[in-house]
Amino acid sequence: MDIVLNVIIGFGIFTGILLFNKTKPIFLKVLLAGLIISLIFNFFIEKIKISSPFFVFGIFSLIYSVYSICTRKWANSIIGLFAFVSIFNILFDLPYYGAVQFLMLIPIVFFVFKWIYWKDNISQLSILSVLGFYELVLFLKFIEALIET
After folding, report:
1. Is 29:124 a contact under the CB 8 Å cutoff?
2. Distance separating alpha carbons of residues 106 and 16, to the nearest angstrom
3. pLDDT at 121
4. pLDDT tens for residues 68-84?
5. DSSP assignment of 109-131, as one string?
6. What is the pTM of this model?
7. How far apart are CA 110 and CA 32, in angstroms?
8. Which residues have C-beta within 8 Å of that of residue 144, sequence separation ≥ 6?
9. Do 102 and 68 meet the contact criterion of CB atoms below 8 Å apart?
10. How big is the CA angle at 122 (ends 58 and 73), to the nearest 5 degrees?
């Protein structure tokens, strides 16, 4: 199952790279580059539970959420905020991580709607793809753990 999850993350990264030129403003391009680089580095440091690229991914997710709140893009801010909350939960080893993984359904639904109305969201769809596929992987890990028990 880990190979499938890595392919899903890879697809999110690939989609983000493909949509890089459509991303506006330049600030979002820098955020996208940071998200992609941190996820790629996280592939190589997979054995450590918390790594610095993982932490950087969380910080960039939070910055994107704040940016989306400032620009009044509420669905985008929810997608970014859930990615940050998952990393915050892992970082501080908080209880109920399974509930956090299950709640990833919320940003996944928002992500699907953003893809349905892609013409309205093309300037941020690259970042949303990276975050959305990351959240999909978290939800699939929850389903996997549920099936194993």
Report:
1. no
2. 21
3. 87
4. 999 999 999 999 999 99
5. HHHHHHHHTGGGSTTTHHHHHHH
6. 0.92
7. 19
8. 1
9. no
10. 55
